[in-house]
Structure formats: structure tokens, C-alpha cells
Amino acid sequence: MTCVREWRVQRQMIPLSPPAAGPSPLRAERRQSAQPDRISRHNGGQRHAVRPCPPPPGSNSRPSRRRGFTLLEVLVALAILSVVLVTVYQAYSSALAIHISTRGLWKAMLFVNDELLRWERARRPPLHVNQGEFDADHPMSGYRWHREVTSVSPLPGVDVRKVTLRLMWDEGIREHSYESQVFVPR
Fold first, then answer.
1. Which end of the chain has fewer CB atoms < 10 Å from its terminal CB, N or C?
2. For residue 143, which phi and psi values (nearest 5 degrees)?
3. 180 phi, psi to nearest 5 deg
4. Interval 133-159: pLDDT, tens
5. Contact 65/55 with Cβ under 8 angstroms?
6. How many CA atoms lie within 13 A of 149 on its CB side?
7. 23/47 Cα distance (integer angstroms)
8. Contact, 116 vs 151, CB < 8 A?
């Protein structure tokens, strides 16, 4: 079945004038355009009925039959969304674990460096080995420390004291530590 586009002709206002002799060409044209084209065509021995063509896609002449998403489209969207959310969650949890670990390390580094600066300013520290834990009200609570002061001779005739301070702390099931040392003249 073939289709023919039906074009609607707008009526034009024609001024009234005395009728002319014979049929008016304008009136004949109006009569032809007012009737729809219902001609049958002959093609290869078969007759095809002529019908109006469907409206072009995107025209608003008829409401669309498709009003929502299919189940397959929803499932594909959910699968993509779940993969993206799992990836974002893993990246976030990794970044959070790194942040917590780095925060504990920075705290230990700052404390050890401050303590070693105090020991460097104190002349002739006594030889000793100490260790312990910080009190609950101390800013470094949760950390353990180990301090060792020894006498070393890096060159013949030169004696210095080596102060080594080590901090240990737990994060989950892992134990972390940070150690630093300073050499103090005798």
C-alpha cells in the first residue's frame, strides 16, 4: 500500500464581483483541492490503494505510544550505576585509610622531632634506656615510646651522645612505628 501526503489548502477570500461568463478557473481549483485524493494506482497488474502517509517522526499530531523505559533499559542502567558506585566506594575507603594512616604518622613525626630538639638543647644527657605509654589525658595517648641514649665515637677522640626516640601505635590490626635520632655533643 502506498501513501500520499495530504496537503490542506487554506481558503482564500475572493472579492465578490459579477459572475463572468463561463466557469471560473479559481473555483474549479478550489473544488479539486477540497476533495481528498482517493485515486487507485495501477502498478504491474496490481491495484494499490492510496492512503495518507503517517506523520513524520517528531511531529505532535499523534501522542507517542512509548511513555516509559523498558525493563531491559532499567536493568542496564542499574548495572552501570552499581559498577560506578562500587568503584567510588572503594576509592573513598582507600583514601580514608590512607588519610588515617598519614595523620597518625604526621602526629608521631611532629612529636618525635619536638622531643629530639629538646634533647639536643640539653647538654650532656645521661646514658639510659626508657620506655612506656602515654597517659589518657596526654595528646599522644594511644602511642607507646622507647628512648635510648648511648655514647658513640664517630671519629677517634670525639665522643657524642646518640639519642634515639621511637614511637609505636596501632591502627586496626597493624602496628606502625616512627623512629628518629639526634647526636648531642658531650
1. N
2. -105, 150
3. -145, 160
4. 999 998 899 999 999 999 998 888 888
5. no
6. 17
7. 34
8. no
- Identify which has the larger pLDDT, 64 or 101: 101
Which amino acid would we find at residue 31? Answer: R
Alpha-carbon span 159 to 179, nearest angstrom: 22
| Residue of 149, 143, 131, 141 lying closest to 177 (CA atoms) | 143
In contact, 39 and 47? CB cutoff 8 Å: no
For CATH 3.30.1300, the residue range(s) in the chain are 73-185
Look up residue 86 and give its amino acid: V
| Model pLDDT for residues 5-61, shown as the tens digit of each residue | 555 555 555 566 555 565 555 555 555 555 554 444 555 555 556 666 666 666 665
Q: Does domain 73-185 have CATH number 3.30.1300?
A: yes
Helices (H), the chain: 25-34, 71-121
Distance CA 47, CA 68 (A): 40
CA nearest to 50, candidates 38, 32, 34: 38
pTM: 0.51
Residue in the structure block whose three cell numbers are 572503594: 90
How close are the terminal C-alpha atoms of the chain, in Å? 110
Q: How far is CA 33 from CA 6, 12, 13, in A?
A: 10, 12, 15
| Residues 115, 125: Cα–Cα separation, whole Å | 13
